[in-house]
Amino acid sequence: MTRRLKITKKQIRLLLPILLLVFGVYLLITALAPAIPPPSQPEHIYTGKKQQPVEIKENRLYIPKISVDVAINEGTAAVLEKGAWHRKPENGNPEKGGNFVLSAHRFELGFTPQRTRAKSPFYHVDKLQAGDKIFVDYNQKRYTYEVTKKYKVDRNAVQIEAPSIEPKMTLYSCDLRGEKAGREVIEASRS
Q1: Which has more pLDDT, 5 or 150?
Q2: Is residue 186 within 8 Å of 149, Cβ to Cβ?
């Protein structure tokens, strides 16, 4: 004799709000994940001091103050899903000088809190101040930059990607209110 499980309308009406509440809490945690920075690493992890020299395997960007550790990629805007986008490589890089321009997502929702955080590396870019250190691994060599300027521009301000004579880094991302609200820009000079 088999018993069939019978779910009544009353049970569904009781279960549905509970499921919606659980889903809502999960969605809220996922959306807020980038706002809660992970524990920051000691600076010697990025500089290689107090330990063995760091083995450099790929081009990466490290910003200790805001816990950024992402790959640097060239190509189309699709590479933003994998980390930072090296915009206009012909305008500069750490090795040759010029304006080394990197862009990354400010906020991109993922399926999990960890994925949302990984897809939103520049979430805290507005927290950077003059004097903060930025480290870049580029072509098997580590470069150090120091933040010199922070400002906002309109979303159409292409002059931030312009070539420059002095070696510098330009980081930018959308405002947290969205692309239409403009861009947060950080400039740094090579140390």
Answers
A1: 150
A2: yes
Spatial separation of the C-alpha atoms in residues 58 and 141, rounded to whole Å: 10
Question: Could you read off the pLDDT of 26-71 as tens digits, one per residue?
Answer: 778 777 777 776 665 555 555 555 555 667 789 999 999 998 999 9
Judge whether residue 97 has pLDDT over 60. Answer: yes
Using the structure block, give the residue that is written with the tokens 């101040």: 129
* Long-range contact set of residues 110-113: C-beta below 8 Å, sequence gap at least 24: 110/30, 111/30, 112/30, 113/29, 113/30, 113/32, 113/33
User: How far, in Å, CA of 54 to CA of 70, rounded?
Assistant: 16
Write out the two tokens for 135. Answer: 């480290």
Say if residues 178 and 166 touch (Cβ distance below 8 Å). Answer: no
Q: Is 62 helix (H, G, I), strand (E, B) or coil?
A: strand
**Nearest in space to 101 (alpha carbons), one of 174, 181, 187:** 187
Taking the C-alpha atoms of residue 127 and residue 116, their distance in angstroms, rounded to an integer, is: 19
